[in-house]
Design a protein that fits this description.
The complex is a heterodimer. Helices cover 15% and strands 47% of the residues of chain A. Chain A is mainly β. Classes of the chains: A mainly beta, B mainly beta.
Chain lengths: 257, 14
């Protein structure tokens, strides 16, 4: 028996928004520790890793590990039926071929349940090593979304360069060039509004704007986002999900031929 | 022009 009850159901709705543009289907791996999902987009350029810890749920029960293959388009349709204020419970029997979503209104006067067919997914899991990155940049998530949107107008690719002085985002195309420089915040009232750079060595990498824009669908999950870069390895874009976990996106860089 | 690399190039398949 698997059962996970989330008081703040809107978080699951936001998680779905953060996943569905990149992934058509994914396996939700449930264990004692919580729910994890790891999947690459169709073209294997990016990888999404979601972690929702058991302690973040109001109620969590997982008698045996299970992997639930879900069509995210279908799951998204179902979660659209939940109100932002609803409490959401995900339930499945051991070895079941369906999963049930239960939505309770805050005062319990409306309860809906939706049963969805599970899929058999034979997905590869990738081992992602713990890495000390040469640069980490924390910035407001809305600022990052704005930068990705603005620079996408100029070209398909964006160069992210990080030095001690700050971080520079650049894109070049037919109409010209756009450069956005962010300096480390000297003084901020609110932690989440800060730009904080930690740098061991300068890094400059090129990434496809299309994927970066897809990652920013997670903006509503967190006020800030962390970018981690090292030479010639995938960029990590991490959004924390309140007290429950995180979604991380890995994006393979573009490399000179 | 720069070529797009792929994720499996960097991470080991378990």
């Amino acid at each position: 028996m698997f059962e996970a009850r989330l008081l703040q159901g809107s978080l699951l709705k936001k998680v779905m928004e953060a996943l569905k543009e990149l992934l058509n289907e994914a396996a939700w791996d449930c264990s004692d520790a919580g729910i994890q999902l790891q999947a690459m987009d169709n073209s294997h350029v990016s990888l999404v890793s979601l972690n929702l810890r058991a302690e973040g749920f109001d109620k969590y029960r997982c008698d045996r590990n299970l992997s639930m293959g879900m069509n995210l388009g279908s799951m998204s349709k179902i979660l659209k039926c939940a109100s932002n204020e609803d409490i959401i419970t995900i339930k499945a029997q051991d070895n079941a071929d369906t999963v049930t979503f239960v939505f309770e209104s805050p005062d319990q006067d409306k309860v809906s349940d939706y049963e969805m067919k599970l899929m058999n997914l034979d997905q590869e899991h990738l081992g992602i090593p713990e890495t000390d990155y040469a640069c980490t940049i924390r910035l407001p998530s809305s600022e990052f979304a704005r930068i990705c949107r603005d620079l996408s107008q100029f070209g398909e690719s964006m160069v992210i360069s990080c030095t001690k002085e700050g971080v520079r985002f650049s894109a070049t195309g037919d109409i010209g060039t756009g450069n956005i420089k962010l300096a480390q915040s000297a003084k901020v009232d609110k932690e989440e509004e800060a730009v904080v750079i930690e740098m061991q060595e300068p890094v400059s990498l090129t990434f496809a704007c299309r994927y970066l824009n897809s990652f920013t669908k997670a903006t509503s999950l967190s006020k800030s986002v962390q970018l981690s870069m090292s030479p010639e390895v995938p960029l990590v874009v991490e959004y924390k999900i309140e007290d429950i976990g995180h979604v991380r996106y890995y994006l393979a860089p573009k490399i000179e031929d | 022009a720069a070529a797009q690399s792929r994720i499996p190039h960097y991470f080991e398949i378990l």
